[in-house]
Amino acid sequence: MPHARLDLMPESAPRLRGRISVCGHEFVPLAAGALYWEAESTLLVADLHLEKGTAFAALGMLLPPYDTRSTLQRLGKVIQALDPARVVALGDSFHRSHLADSLAEEDLACLTSLQQGREWYWICGNHDPHLPASVKGTVCATLSIRGITLRHEPSPNGAREIAGHLHPVARISRRGAVLRRRCFATDGHRLVMPAFGAYAGGLNVLNEAFDLLFVKHRLEAWMMGRTDVYPVLGSLLLPD
Amino acid sequence: MAGVSTRARVLVKTPEGLPEPFASWFARRGWQPHAHQLTLLEAAGAGRDALLIAPTGGGKTLAGFLPSLVDLAERGAKPKPATAIHTLYVSPLKALTTDIARNLTTPVDEMGLPLKLETRTGDTPPSRRARQRVLPPDILLTTPEQIALMLSHRSAPELFGRLKYVILDELHALASSKRGDLLALDLARLRTYAPDLTAIGLSATVARPYELAAFLVPHQGQSTTRLAEIIQGGEGAKADISILKSKAELPWAGHSARYALPEIYAAIKAHRLALMFVNTRSQAEMLFHEVWRYNDEDLPIALHHGSLDVAQRRKVEAAMVAGKLRAVVCTSTLDLGIDWGDVDLVINIGAPKGASRLAQRIGRANHRLDEPSKALLVPANRFEVIECEAALEAAAEGAQDTPPSRPGALDVLAQHVLGTACAAPFDPDALYREVTSASPYQGLARTGFDKVVQFVATGGYALATYERYAKLKRTPEGLWRIAHPRVAQQYRLNVGTIVEAPMVRVRLARLKGGALKPKTLPAAGRVLGEVEEYFIEQLTPGDSFVFAGEVLRFEGMRENDAIVTRANTTEPKVPAYDGGKFPLSTYLADRVRHLLAQPDTWSHFPDQVSDWLRLQAEYSLVPGPDEILIEIYPRGKRFYLVCYPFEGRLAHQSLGMLLTRRLERAGAAPLGFVANEYALAIWGLRDIGAMVRTGRLDLALLFDEDMLGDDLDAWLAESSLMRRSFRVCAIISGLIERRHPGQEKTGRQMTVSSDLIYDVLRQYEPDHILLQAAFADAATGLIDVGRLNDFLKRIRGRIRHIGLDRVSPLAVPVMLEIGRESVPGEASETLLRETVEELIAEALGGNAARKTGPHA
User: Fold this and answer.
1) Which ipTM was obtained for this model?
2) For A28-46, how does the pLDDT look when each residue is reduced to its tens digit (9 = 90+)?
3) Check: CATH 3.40.1350 for A15-154+161-236?
4) What is the largest CA-CA distance in chain B?
5) A127: how many CB neighbours lie within 10 A of its CB?
6) Does A16 lie at the interface with B, CB-CB under 8 angstroms?
7) Containing H/E element for B786?
8) Chain A partners of B733 at a C-beta cutoff of 8 Å?
9) How many structural domains is chain B composed of?
10) Which of A63, A64, A226 faces B829 most closely, judged by CB atoms?
């Protein structure tokens, strides 16, 4: 796909430029940090970590209490633009299970309106092993669609899966400047999603936690820019 | 005050003006008390706050302690129970407290004074610190951070209730900084416990003594209740300063002064002990490396700068005192008044950047008032010759250019408010009065103060969701108290205003032969020191750099250590970490512009420099002192705009950012810019000269002051500078916790990166108090908005534009910086695009489809 032509697309629309292929299925990575499976009209997001600010406040760090709002509004924009029939959140959607119950009214209303008129799946993560009834949607441990398993934590020997949990970021160095960005990490058999949450940190894809997940020489990091996602070969990446 | 008449009586008893046993002790040493020592004794002894301004070597420290020592001598043995401190001595450096304690012990012992004297710094063992809170010494020598810590304990009222003197040493180095703000707040707090305490400030010569003096006295909001006395400690002998004349060709750009090494080495040989000051740690490393290449006679020459391992620094200091060294290459860590032995020559490499800084450094030579200090200025390039000349004139006149005072920082106030609550519940009205009695906070409005208290209590967000997690809670009586003892623990771990960039240890790998693989690094050896994390981030394994005086090869990271080996190259990739880069002071810049504008003064310069300026006058223009020269010319396929504001690199970089934004809008397609201390060069694809001629670009509008409005806001909000200053404010104010050595974060769970917090806060509450604090910091410290503003005002209607067909002589130095300086990193999207496009080009013909189509 020629690149120059795609730059003519409107700034506001999520860019459907590059496509990532996992086991023969095509996915569109979005600069917002979500992954769109067009053929299935399914939107994937991972590690929303809603209410992380509140969790930290309880520990004595009074971070700006707008992270849930920021995350949901970003998600809202993507959903509005694509209108997917199905949304799957790949776990750690809430920073603490119990905090899902104390979402601010406005935030809960926002979430509910996003869920309106579409299927919604919450895959369980280590941060949110169970969800309270106040939150709508189907809760499940894993979800399989057309032979691709969606789960929170990547499985040690599995392939054909899309997971979250690890919050991959990639680092490159160009002309003396170093860039570190959230990224989609894939080798074509498996894909690890970037964290979507406003307060979610990141782990370098060269960290040993990723070692067993990818075929080394096929690793690609699709780095998130402001409006585009940029594929970078694994051989160009730097460790932290 | 009861004590006043007693002391006055004692003073008249002896003809010399010194009471016993001080008079005889001075006499035994063959000393005459300096006039300023006696004046200070009289003023402070009578309870009047006083500022003593004296050059180094004037017996300044002893003068500062005399009122206290005399009072203690009169008091006799310590009354029981001994739970109160008599005198606090505060210095900006740990090393200085140790040094002063050592120097003070001699007179105290020889006169048999009945007093106890101790130091307390971050290095003091916890057990002793705990004991000091219960059984304090009479005189405690300490740092601002330690005072804040002691004030946060319940025992503070008792500990400081009978405090008589507070001595603030090197006050010029503390005031006008966040540490100074903290110190001012601490002093106000101490006065609440001990209303009659007397503050004594000791300072090197400064531009505006009355501003420093205001630091010492309590204020009532905007109105001062009393003035501190200012005591001038004599001039000292005029310094003997010269500019090094070299036969070699003067470089056009750069900072190494490598061309002058033969002359520098000769000067070292001709003196007992020379200090070689440079402006950055990387310059120190490089010079040290170069000097040793010249050191045929193996003279003992050492290196001293802030990121070297402490043990190594102490070794160098000890060797200096013992007279075992002939020269030391150092940075500003040796600027302050530590007495390190018999220095008889100060060599300042590169331009001094400020008249007061130069005076301080020169003061390091010949630590005696009556002998002239000897100094040699070594300009590293042609522009620096002019700057050195300007500094020489300033030194001859004794002119000073210390930074002006500024309003106290709100993040520091937030820390102080929390500390206050840790000691005991506080009444907000009383605390507001106390805070505004500190000179940096005189102008603080009550609403601003209340916002800070709210911030400390609940984060101060418009969306008030954290009430149940509040750190401070209101008591029924209206006092603020801490919600939980844990809050006090957190406060104590985070106290202080020094936020270092994250550091990485540099550790030598112990090699046992064989190739080295990053994953299987052998047992790690000795730690050489620390460098900023971002510097190491720029390196890839195999890169070489100079550190701790050696050329090292970066092998890889292991935990928090950068593992290195000794490299066998002699041409290293020099470290670019900028521990202590100083901007050219406004005052010196002004002098430089005037020197340039007066061709009759050019004869003072070496021929190479005056010829260069004459060439410039012939080919282009030499601007008048209040004018700005703008040269526009084509070169290669590019068009260049070069201007000469002489406002320092920081201000030029900001100007470059803003001008490129505006040129972009004007359709000039700018590609990049580069700045040095004197000039700014911008280049682009469009013929800027033609745009000016045809009226499509108006230079007066381009340089209009309105760029400091929306353009500045828009740029800053995105810039990494704001993110950096936000991080500092977030740590100081206690929003996020400090990273402590050894307590490594795993990256994902333990903390939230300040960048993420910044993004969210800016989006949802752009006028939050912490963003205000960060903006204030960035505007003064990192981008010099004030200075840009003055500059833009100054040149209004005074733009001199000349179109040229090639580069002018004056433009050569800044043009040489192109490629040497990396493009400031705001263009990250461009970099990402470039990376991908390069890859695509590379992959075309091969498996380009792989990235966009399904895998085969």
Assistant:
1) 0.88
2) 999 999 999 999 999 999 9
3) no
4) 103
5) 22
6) no
7) helix B785-795
8) none
9) 6
10) A226
